[in-house]
Amino acid sequence: MSSSFFLKGKSRQVHKRKGDKINKKTTKKQIVPNLENGHESSESDLDLKKFSDAEESESDHETAEQKKLRLAKKYLEEIEKEEAKRSEVKELDDAIDKRLHKDYLEQKGKLKIEVADNYIAPCENDSRLIRTKEHRLSLTCVCVSSESDYAFTGCKSGTIIKWGIKEKRKLGCLSYKTHSTYLKGGITSIAITSDSKYLATADSSPSVQIWDPHTLKHIHTFRGHKDTVIGLVFRKNTHDLYSASKDRSVRIWSLDEMAYVETLFGHQSPITSIDALSRERAITSGGRDTTVRVWKIVEESQLIFNGPEGSLDEVKLLDEEHFVSGSDNGSICLWSVLKKKPICMVKEAHGSENGVPRWIMSLATLLNTDVFASGSYDNQIRVWKVSDSYKNIEPLFTVPSVGFVNNIQFTSNGRQLYAALGQEHKNGRWFKQSNAKNGLLIVNFSIKS
After folding, report:
1. Residue 218, burial from CB neighbour count under 10 angstroms (0-12, 13-18, 19+)
2. pTM for this predicted structure
3. Which of 209, 304, 309, 402 is most buried, taking the most CB atoms under 10 A from its CB?
4. d(CA 384, CA 446)
5. Can you tell me the distance from the alpha carbon of 80 to that of 67, in angstroms, rounded to the nearest whole number?
């Protein structure tokens, strides 16, 4: 009788009970020796050896007192470096805070930098007149880039000149002879973007031309106005263009898409000037309707300010909350957007001739400061100071200028003033000064530190 006990070739399975332990063979990991120069050494031994070698090399020829002095100097150098880093970070933070605060005040129209008292009246050597044969007739407009690298001038003969401020010479020319497709008649307005990417020009036609200010190549033509475009301005730090026309409308264009945006109506007579800053707002003067209008584009509304009798020919923003205007009755008015009537008025600001006040033909403001300038045909550009918290206007000094001051503009730093001079008024031929010369007047100012 066979049983499993007698079977050959089969291994017996040993069943362990729950209480029994199973012994497992453990394999020891081989420790690889760290050899250096044929000898075993640990990592800590190596670090200690390197450290001791470095210390020995430095302290071979020094006493204990010299060693203490050297270590103390090292410690002081480390402290100085740490403190320098902390101070740099602190200075950077302070600079950022000041810049953000300044931008906030500028956006709200509450930034005012008082610099008028630091201006020194220029002498004869601080002014010079630049002429060119291409400007045969009176200059009508001038435009300076935000970085003060270029200046552009236009005249009644339909010519645009590009001037290099640093090079102090003429860099390019656009004329009706070479660009008759785009330039038609006298140039009425020129504007350039804050980043100097686009240059916009207007002439006697209802069209607006867009150019590359660096190469003077034509980019695009905007059509839509029904009469002559007399004013152009770019919203600060954007490519949004506002154009004002004799058809009593303001049109908004986007140069990023090269497209028309919308039209603003409201004036009862041809618009005479336009200005804008950072906000989505534009300000215009309505000429014979004696109103200044602030266009709130986002809100789709407008503020109406009633000016003095006569034609309101010029308007310029001092900041987002205050502006100045000039009329053909010779008065200059200071305004606040919170009041419908002028805060301050200077009558016959440029005197009178044969009992008739001289027209205010041009205004220029140094943004967010208490300084602005005005031009007429009394052979003087007058610089004014806004005082008493925007409640008064005081004369600072005058700059000699022979002829009609058709347009003026400050550079961004306020150290120069550019004036477009001519023998005739920019909008007509009512008067003529034969002794005047058609050219660009550059005035250099000295400012106290």
Report:
1. middle
2. 0.78
3. 209
4. 16
5. 20
Residue length of the chain: 449
Q: How far is CA 323 from CA 334, 390, 410, 419, in A?
A: 6, 10, 16, 20
Q: Which pLDDT tens digit goes with each residue over 178-214?
A: 888 899 889 999 999 999 999 999 999 999 999 999 9
Q: What is the DSSP string of 289-329?
A: T-EEEEEETTTTEEEEEE--SS-EEEEEESSSSEEEEEETT
Q: Per the structure block, which two tokens stand in for 94?
A: 């302070």
Locus of tokens 């038609």: 184
Q: Using CA atoms, how far apart are residues 121 and 385, in angstroms rounded to an integer? A: 13
Query: Over the range 250-264, which residues count as b (16 or more CB within 10 Å of their CB) and which as e?
Result: bbbbebeeeeeeeeb
Q: Distance of CA 278 to CAs 108, 299, 319, Å?
A: 10, 16, 10
Interior CA angle at 208 toward 139 and 238, to 5°? 100
Q: How far apart are CA 440 and CA 159, in angstroms?
A: 13
pLDDT digits (tens, 9 = 90+) for 415-442: 999 999 999 999 888 888 989 999 999 9
Residue 14 has pLDDT above 70, yes or no: no
Q: In what order do the strands lie in the sheet with 249-254?
A: 229-234, 240-245, 249-254, 259-265
Q: Which residue bears the tokens 């152009």?
A: 232
Residue 200, strand partner residues = 191, 210
Residue 399 in contact with residue 380, Cβ under 8 Å?
Answer: yes
E-strand spans in 349-433?
Answer: 352-353, 356-357, 362-365, 371-375, 380-387, 392-400, 404-410, 416-422
CB 373, CB 409: distance < 8 Å: no
Cα–Cα distance list, 197 to 173, 236, 269, 356 (Å): 18, 13, 33, 44
d(CA 376, CA 360): 5
Measured CA to CA, the distance from residue 390 to residue 339 in angstroms comes to: 12
Count other Cβ atoms within 10 Å, centred on residue 115. 16
Residue pair 192/234 in contact (Cβ under 8 Å)? The answer is yes
Rounded to whole angstroms, the Cα distance separating 374 from 274 reads: 16
189-192 β-sheet, strand order: 189-192, 199-202, 208-211, 218-222
Neighbours of 356 (CB within 10 A): 11
Q: Are 232 and 274 in contact (CB under 8 A)?
A: yes
